[in-house]
Amino acid sequence: MIWGVFVDESGDQGGRSKYYVLTLVFHDQSDSLEEHLARHAKGLRKRGFADTPFHAGPLMHGHGAFENLDLKTRKAYFQLFFIDAQHLPVVYHSLVYRRSEFDGNDALVAKMRRDIASLLRDRLSFFQTFDRVKIYYDDGQTIVAHALYSAFEQALAKSSVLHRTYHASDFMLTQAADLLCALELAAVKFANKEATSTDERMFGSSGTFRKNYLRPLRRKRLAR
């Protein structure tokens, strides 16, 4: 039995972002995603959307592949993926950090490594029921890669940790990790009254965000 861990981050390793969010999405890879992929593809076709991979940042701001879409269409695309992601057979855990509390990347890496290792140790009996753990991360930021791999190898036997590139059938889960990162970041900003105009245009008021996004989202959190 193989447990997949799909990882994404929100924030830059240069320290310009106020918050740094690291999200880990856990999936029992014996659970097929074919039905979920087919449902999402059907939903895209029904609404006349191109089969463009979900990417929260560009979608919210109207950049990249989404630059020619108006706000109404981008919100509909976001909501479709959010609804479909709720049906995925996954759980997740997010770590949120305020960059001002860390004196450089080394301190942040050390804290992330400790927090990931603690997460794994607290649920060690659960993880030990699986024969292999595969970590899916694109190595986009070295601080995440360092924290991630060292924490898993510290908490679990090295022979149980495999680093894999993405396959087509796994791609929706990498997009789900991106979605969860964006929503957990929005949750922090709404809670601290720091929501941007983009956040409010996409999600509405703080109360609307909690009702329509945060509450459904939190049902997917990894239980202790």
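^ that was protein a. below is b, sequence first then the tokens
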Amino acid sequence: MVDSVQINASRFVGRTEGKLRDFYRIGKVLGEGAFGEVRLCVHRDSGAQRAVKVLRKSHMDEDEKRMLFNEINILKEIDHPNIVKMYEFFEDEKRYYIVTEICKGGELFDEILARGKFGEKDAAVLIKQVLSCINYCHSAKIVHRDLKPENILLEQNKEFDQIKIIDFGTSLVYDPNKKLDEKLGTPYYIAPEVLGKSYGSKCDIWSIGVIVYILLSGIPPFNGKDDQEIMKAVRKGKFSFSDASWNKVSNSAKDFIT
């Protein structure tokens, strides 16, 4: 059972014996980050295309390694059509390798930038998938804690009923009877109770509300010139639908956000 799993860095992670290149042909770079890169890879036996996250150990501190093992342990235990599937984990002296399914449609964040904003129909289809995924996680006593458009990937066909949620590094198996007190998340999307260091799984629902607001208007509900100002606005929790971008949005969509 997922909810009985103790997530910590010391717990053994079932990694595949042998070298990544024994099992996969490594292809082009799909993206780059602070600790390494994501590359296309092809499974030698099946020919299936996958993605491999290549992380340099020398670029990671102990806390970052703990988050990595945390993510691996969580992804090993969960199975949902809207959560990116992890296939294998490899390790050598210098690097960690996580092999996952591949999503070629890019981040929802980039799609918002390209469109400016979403129509209600597309937003509704997309958010239904996000809610289904997070309901599954919460039922398994897992809280994500960093939901944002950068952590929602699209398939190549850009069909919004086929999204994948990624980045479970800050996720946690939690006890519903205890409050969480770690301040984690991204300023625009963080819930005020997280800033107050006393919260539960509903912090994910707040983040989804912020995502819907941004999808339908193209602007964030809580803004500021820097992270401190943004978080100050989040603490107040006051937002409005006064911008012209809300003129053609239905009352039921506004009610849903509220």
